[in-house]
Amino acid sequence: MQFESIASLFSAFKEPWWKVFYDFSILTRGVDVWLRNLMSPTWTVVTEMIIIGIVFLLFYAVIGLFLVYAERKVCAFIQNRLGPNRIGPFGIFQTIADLVKLLFKELIVIKNADKFLFNLAPYIVIIVNFMVLAALPFAKGLHAIDFNIGIFYILAVSAMGVVGILLAGWSSNNKYSLIGAMRSGAQIVSYELSVGLSLMVIVILAGSMQLSVIVEAQRTGWFIFKGHISAVIAFVIYLIAGTAETNRGPFDMSEAESELTAGYHTEYSGIRFAFFYLAEFINMFVVASIAATLFLGGWMPFHVGNWEGFNHVMDFIPPVVWFFGKTFMVIWIIMLFKWTFPRLRIDQLLTLEWKYLLPINLVNVLLMAFLVLMGWHF
Amino acid sequence: MEEIIKEAVIGEQEEYIINMGPQHPSTHGVLRLVVSLKGEIVKNVQPHIGYIHRGIEKMCESITYPQIIHLTDRMDYLSASINNEGVCLAVEKALEVDIPDRIKVIRTIVSELTRIQSHQLFWASYGMDMGGQTCFFYGLRDREMILDIFEETMGGRMLVSYNCPGGLMYDIHPNFQNRVKAFLKYFRKVLPEYDAILTGNVIFKSRTIDVGKLSLEDAISYGVTGPSGRASGFSCDIRKHDPYSAYDRVKFNEVLYSEGDTYHRYCARIEEMRESMNIIDQLIDNIPEGPYAVKLKPVIKLPEGEYFQRVETARGELDVFVVSDGNKNPYRVKFRTPSFVNLGVLNHITKDFKIADLIAIAGSLDLVIPDIDR
Predict the structure, then answer these.
(1) Which single residue of A23, B132, B253, B290 could bond B127 by disulfide (Cβ 3.0 to 4.6 Å)?
(2) Which of A136, A193, A173 is nearest to A326 (CA)?
(3) Is A329 exposed, middle or buried (0-12, 13-18, 19+ CB in 10 A)?
(4) Beta strand extents in A235-282 (DSSP E only)
(5) DSSP string, B28-55
């Protein structure tokens, strides 16, 4: 029985193993068939969920650690420094060492803090992150849940992250934390509108909210090229609003270390602090990957009209590489924002959103609707 | 009585009191600001000082004049050699010593280099206050070059103690002139970079223009001097009005603005770096020959009387007032330090601005906390 089922797993690979990198559904279907032969359908679903959960946990940790390292290197690059270079070649294990340090640190809960909420807050932030990751299409067939309302789901879930931040600020019993949390609340609630509307532009163009359909629609060309000026405007607004949503760059009002020491996570120590820190980076990854998926074609390779040879070469690069390449390019831009711009003031931040981005966005949505109606897009 | 205490301690009921400092990233030292907020709006700022009070004035009464020099380094550590110069000039004035030109010229060059490095650090830390952390590294990178020049000639980097009554501690290093010239050449190229990354930035401009306005009348009545005062149009440059050392033989402009807001306090410092470079340019090739120090008596005793000298540090006017009773140590020394006086205006100009503006305004006054507390 055992041997048979393992054989059935391999029998799924009728094609050479490296084909997996071009279509992950070969692997996922193989695992599914193997598990179904092994146990009842209910247990199959449970086991698959557990496997996906573990994979995401690992992915979360790895990508978080990598982004922390990348940020430090990018920042060092801009600031004429070397950055971490002691632990491992080019200091690549520096963040792992930091993580180990944070794991061993004492978890300090200050007096008069609301202990339950104080402990709960970092987990809310983390859970929200996980939930968003589930809906992202990483490559062909590498997609945990393919909702038919994928974008709607991502917007709804990622907006919940602010609850964790507000709770952290409120329960810390620290004045700086409270101010930071309140700022963050105002900021995220405002910029959620811009993010939503700029994504709506693409939804109108694609005619669907399902992420796999949106990616598939970009087979003939990425939406940023297909959608005329309207898509470009939406992309720029999405980048600005997305940066604001992640509390980063010139919009890190809620942390603003020169004003509020560390904002909402001032009182957190050890691994709880690391959760907030990681969540911030994963948020950035999520924002960048949504930008890559909706505007830059997701895992679709770059194709130019009738250049058969060129297109063929591009097809050789696996979709995973395309997806992560695009995502990290957007992350690089977001990192550049942070290390070159001074911080905005809270009222200027809200002015930017409500007086400039939102009206432009509303007009942009109409413009795109008009373009699609007239069939003027490519 | 109870009500008075209550009011003094917690203020009005709706107000939200925050203790900024003594340990806070943006107070650059142990300054404590008790800030009353209404939401994000600053209603009242009460500076509490004295966390790094060392009683330098009192200590001066029990030590000799050459020893005082080393204490003045520790007041405004960013313009250490200018502080030294103030005391030296006061002592020399009392002794009626004629100082050779070589000493005067070298003192002026060193003072201007000190001013440049102080403003570089201001730029660096101000960028960081505003959230642009890259500025900090750029500023420190360039400041390092001046500190290296100092190290070569004076042995010290920040607290140089280079001036002493009667001249200088040592002669300049043979490399001094070349290295200063090389630095000027380099820094002229780099200064536009400063403007590109911070001064011209839209976010920076919108955060500083029209924020924390200080009118000319208020600047004069509060006694705000230095670049902060000159940004309001208060012509208070001691180097122009009461020239000491070699300032009477160089041509330079007093940087004056009329707006008096945070942005122009910042610009005044950037422009002053350019003026300082011009001053050094005029002097660096014309250092006269001669001794680097005048021989004074081994034990310096000032004749009975009161002696007063003012110098222009990087932050404003430093007044040195020495009362002597004819002994080898002074009867009383009083320093009028610029940061202490400039701090006084903080509450006046931050009222009804936001917390973020409080940081911007306090940063633009370029306070050095040991200079406040002495």
Answers:
(1) B132
(2) A136
(3) middle
(4) none
(5) SSS-EEEEEEETTEEEEEEEE--TT---
Is residue A1 over pLDDT 70? Answer: no
Structure tokens belonging to residue B332: 């009383």
Contact of B341 with B223, CB cutoff 8 Å: yes
Question: B48 CB near a chain A CB, below 8 Å?
Answer: no
* Most B CBs within 10 Å, among A81, A341, A347, A350, to test the B interface: A341
Convert the pLDDT of each residue in B300-321 to its tens digit: 888 888 899 989 888 888 999 9
Long-range contacts of A254-258 (CB under 8 A, 24+ apart): A254/A165, A254/A180, A254/A181, A254/A183, A254/A184, A254/A187, A255/A180, A256/A180, A256/A183, A256/A343, A256/B131, A256/B356, A257/B25, A258/A343, A258/B25, A258/B26, A258/B128, A258/B129, A258/B130, A258/B131, A258/B359
Render pLDDT for A343-354 as a digit per residue (tens, 0 to 9).
888 888 888 888
User: Which two structure tokens, joined as six digits, stand for B308?
Assistant: 């007063």
Residue found under tokens 């980048």: A239
- Third-level CATH fold of B10-19+21-373: Cytochrome-c3 Hydrogenase; chain B (1.10.645)
User: How are beta strands B167-168 and B305-312 bridged, if at all?
Assistant: unpaired
Cβ distance of A345 and B357 shorter than 8 Å: yes
Per-domain boundaries in chain A: 2-38, 105-374
Q: How far is CA B39 from CA B14, B221, B247, in A?
A: 9, 31, 49
pLDDT in tens, B180-216: 999 999 999 988 888 888 888 888 888 888 888 888 9
**Chain A interface mutation, best of B130, B144, B211, B358, highest count of A Cβ atoms under 10 Å:** B130
Q: By CB neighbour count within 10 A (0-12 exposed, 13-18 middle, 19+ buried), where does A58 fall?
A: exposed
**Any residues with CB less than 8 A from the CB of A42 and at least 6 apart, and which?**
none
Please answer yes or no on whether A80 and B203 come within 8 Å at the CB atom: no
Is pLDDT at B1 greater than 70 in this prediction? no
